[in-house]
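Postdoc handover notes: sequence design on the structure in folder B. Input tokens:
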């Protein structure tokens, strides 16, 4: 079922969102690490897909269109990865634009909140790190480290940017139903990103799975750079139970700052149906 010649990574970030490598550099890096099926999944933005696709074709890799959409579900932030959609779809494009406007508004509110905590000009400071696309918490974190308020990115999140901390502001992202609907409308597959990161209990995970299924979602990241093998097994069982396909991705953000290197993911559980099973990848020559 799972072709061992395919080294698949369906979740990573470029400078279009909060990664450190440009789309072309990222594809080059993935290829060096042995990946031959790659999706670029920047947060709320698909502006890097053309550059990445072009580079992937030069490197003889299979490229899959991707995006990671920020969603608010039950007052929590959940990320939904969209895969293999039509990138010219106007409905998807205009709604992503709407989310990015919301992001910018959130960034201004974050900047104000950080100002009250003594960190001035944070919006302008974060902008310096947002190279071409969206403005996110990582860009603020880089500025806060630069200003010496914390020693590294991890401590900035802990001290300033997570719920209850001075630079954290509440934000309403897209609804789960809308995000899954836009991906489907563009002909793509919607996948729950890094489920192990949500820390939901015995009641909430089943609710998320059934709401997601009801909205038309089809997959879950059973293997993620931020999950260990025991979590892979846990979510493989959940995929079985809810009849979901399994995806895998590193969530790579750049060399030295990611949970796992590209091409070095934990094993894909045998019991799972890969999300790429009906993408006809085996018809493409992999060398
Ligand atoms: P945002 O979508 O702007 O709220 O930012 C979320 C991004 O911040 C995630 O995709 C990660 O890249 C990053 N992030 C979240 N929590 C942490 C953390 N504790 N340490 C480092 N990066 C984090
Ligand atoms: Mn990120
Ligand atoms: Mn995410
Ligand atoms: Mn991600």
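Designed sequence:
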């Amino acid at each position: 079922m799972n072709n061992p010649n395919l080294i698949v990574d369906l979740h990573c970030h470029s400078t279009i969102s909060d990664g450190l490598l440009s789309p072309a550099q990222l594809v080059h890096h993935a290829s060096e690490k042995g990946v031959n099926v790659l999706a670029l999944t920047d947060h709320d933005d698909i502006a890097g897909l053309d550059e990445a696709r072009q580079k992937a074709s030069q490197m003889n890799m299979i490229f899959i269109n991707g995006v990671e959409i920020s969603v608010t579900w039950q007052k929590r932030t959940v990320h939904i990865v969209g895969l293999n959609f039509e990138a010219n779809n106007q409905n998807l494009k205009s709604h992503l634009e709407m989310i990015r406007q919301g992001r910018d508004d959130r960034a201004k509110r974050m900047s104000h909140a950080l100002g009250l905590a003594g960190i001035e000009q944070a919006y302008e400071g974060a902008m310096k790190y947002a190279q071409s696309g969206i403005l996110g918490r990582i860009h603020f974190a880089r500025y806060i480290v630069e200003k010496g308020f914390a020693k590294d990115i991890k401590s900035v999140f802990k001290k300033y940017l997570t719920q209850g901390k001075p630079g954290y502001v509440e934000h309403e992202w897209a609804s789960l139903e809308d995000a899954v609907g836009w991906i489907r409308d563009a002909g793509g597959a919607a996948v729950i990103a890094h489920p192990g990161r949500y820390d939901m209990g015995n009641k909430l995970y089943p609710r998320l799975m059934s709401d997601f299924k009801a909205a038309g979602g089809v997959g879950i990241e059973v293997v993620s750079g931020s999950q260990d093998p025991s979590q892979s097994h846990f979510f493989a069982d959940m995929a079985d139970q809810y009849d979901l396909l399994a995806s895998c991705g590193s969530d790579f953000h750049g060399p030295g700052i990611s949970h796992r290197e590209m091409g070095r993911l934990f094993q894909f559980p045998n019991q799972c149906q890969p999300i790429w099973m009906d993408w006809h990848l085996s018809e493409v020559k992999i060398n």
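Context for whoever picks this up: The chain has a mean pLDDT of 95. Don't rerun without checking with the PI first.
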